[in-house]
Amino acid sequence: MKVLIVGSGGREHALAWKIRQSPFLSKLYAAPGNAGIAEIAECVPLSMEDLDALVRFAKEKEIDLTVIGPESLLAAGVVDRFQAEGLKIFGPTKSAARLESSKIFAKEIMLRSGVPTAEFKVFDDAAQAKHHLIESEPPFVIKADGLASGKGVVVATSCEDGVQAITKFMEEKSLGEAGSRIIIEERLEGEELSVLVFTDGESMLPLASAQDHKRLLDLDRGPNTGGMGAYSPCPFLSNEDFYKALDKTVRPILHTLSKEKIIYRGVLYAGLILTRNGPYVLEYNARFGDPETQAVLPRLKSDLLPVLLEIAEGRFPVQPLEWDERYSLNVVMASAGYPGPYEKGVVISGTEAFREKSDLFGFHAGTARNDRGELVTSGGRVLSVTGLGDTLKHAQEKAYEAIYQIRFEGAHFRKDIGRRALESVRS
Ligand code: AMP
Ligand code: GLY
Fold it and tell me: Closest ligand 2 atom, CA of 291?
């Protein structure tokens, strides 16, 4: 099979690495890819915004399956476009991807499906939203309706912070149109957990659980980011409770969507929070998580490619997924300034540390080659390393041992990925 992966992050490198192992693969392309993906696939410099160019490329090269990484393409209708041309593609259609591209759509469907989620109100007028804050008790969570690459959520502990977020989103339009409608919701407390399922729109084939680390700094301080590290599996939920949580938080959504003639095919990611009253949904994503994918795929023993193809064809995979019993832990290294503006073109050294071993995997994200062929930074999240170990502690040691050998000016990473799980095991 000829496969095209679209995207350029660590998630796409992990997908490319996994798909490369399939005996069914004959040729792997990535658009646009990154310096790491270029070592295992042919990278083609297509713009991710140019859906026509992607369709043309897939036709010209007779691609058997296209796999979409980023949500922006799903929201732009890349799947609808490919399907209209008779091309096979993995991912949900534009209307199904609204579970991620509109937080208001997601909340409304959760309400109609009886899925536990934080109480909320929707606003399209800044003055009314501010008035609501003044009349209620903090803390609040303010969320922009549209896609915002992790910058659309503010957890405000005071009324002033909440008002400031509303001004930024709705009046200053810091996120463009994505922030013209907002949600204000109650803050929930508990451990967070990412659950991902493959689905044909009806049945669910779950992937191993993971926990992301969204805050920039150790001890979960600092601003939200795209994710600074993850580990798998997540020990905060027993296997039995994991399946129960899926039945409460994912299955009813698929059912409601299909009643409304929206068939969700692809991978559905539910961001859960384990409250005292059970699991609640914080958000849905219509794609693989980043960096969850970098933590989860190294544990997957089954061939991923047939699963992606079956889902793309609307068939439910017959084989269960097989998992490595070991723990995995992924640590992300980011550019100085991330998640704000950052410099590009900074030379990276020491990546020999993550030449592949049976218990260590390096995934590139924002990397490129300069004119001299040197590996340089080209994004906010630059690369990540995943360690595997018989215990979470061992996986953590492996990953950090490699991370400490990789260097570039201004590089920063969290030193405490996995901390909360390790503390909970201890207690
Ligand atoms: P989201 O993009 O909706 O997942 O939000 C990003 C992060 O904000 C989540 O991973 C949580 O850490 C936090 N968050 C979002 N909604 C809530 C909520 N209702 N209560 C507490 N934290 C939240
Ligand atoms: N790791 C969070 C996300 O992929 O949205």
Answer: 1
71 lines ligand 1 (CB under 6 A): no
Counting from 1 in the atom list of ligand 2, the atom nearest the Cα of 287 is: 4
User: Residue range 129-145: average pLDDT?
Assistant: 95
Tokens of 89: 């593609």
Q: Specify the 3-state DSSP secondary structure of 406.
A: coil
With a Cβ cut-off of 6 Å, ligand 2 is lined by: 212, 227, 285, 289-290, 292
Query: What pLDDT digit, counting tens, does each position of 23-64 carry?
Result: 999 999 999 999 999 999 999 999 988 999 999 999 999 999
Rounded CA separation 87/110 (Å): 32
User: Alpha-carbon distance 255 to 272, whole Å?
Assistant: 19
Place of tokens 């906010």: 380
Domains of the chain with CATH codes: 2-94 (3.40.50.20), 125-180 (3.30.1490.20), 191-312 (3.30.470.20), 327-420 (3.90.600.10)
**Average pLDDT of 116-132?**
97
pTM as predicted: 0.97
User: Cβ distance 185 to 140 under 8 Å?
Assistant: yes
Asked if residue 118 has its Cβ within 6 Å of ligand 1, the reply is yes
Q: How far is the CA of 291 from the centre of ligand 2 (A)?
A: 7
- Report whether 372 contacts 358 (CB < 8 A): no
In one letter, which amino acid is 340? G
Beta-carbon count within 10 A of 415 CB:
14
Distance 201 CA to ligand 2 centre (A): 21
H helices of 61-148, in order, are: 71-75, 78-84, 98-101, 103-113, 126-135
Instruction: Give mean pLDDT, residues 303-317.
Output: 97
Query: Looking at the chain, how many residues does it have?
Result: 427
- For residue 426, what are its two tokens? 């201890």
Q: Strand 2-7 and strand 65-68: pairing?
A: parallel
Tell how far the Cα of 289 is from the centroid of ligand 2, in angstroms. 4
Alpha-carbon span 313 to 326, nearest angstrom: 32
Which of 155, 169, 219 has most ligand 1 atoms within 8 Å of CB, for mutation? 155
Choose one of 103, 212, 216, 332 to mutate for the ligand 2 pocket test, by most ligand atoms within 8 angstroms of C-beta: 212
